[in-house]
Design a protein that fits this description.
The protein is mostly helical. The protein contains 2 helices and no strands.
Length: 57
């Protein structure tokens, strides 16, 4: 039981982000996921085209 009590005491010391920070971080993650998805999708398309071209030689 001492462990659980210690966990709750430590959780009280945590500095939780504000709603404004949560929104900003959430949108940052969404935008980055979209950008990385587009980048890797384009890279995959490029490599697939390259491989298909090489195989057609």
């Amino acid at each position: 039981m001492g462990y659980v009590k210690g966990v709750f005491q430590e959780l009280k010391k945590v500095t939780w982000p504000s709603v404004k920070e949560i929104n900003r971080f959430t949108w940052t993650v969404i935008v980055m996921v979209i950008l990385f998805g587009l980048y890797f999708g384009a890279a995959d398309l490029g490599f697939a085209s390259l491989v298909n071209w090489l195989l057609s030689l």
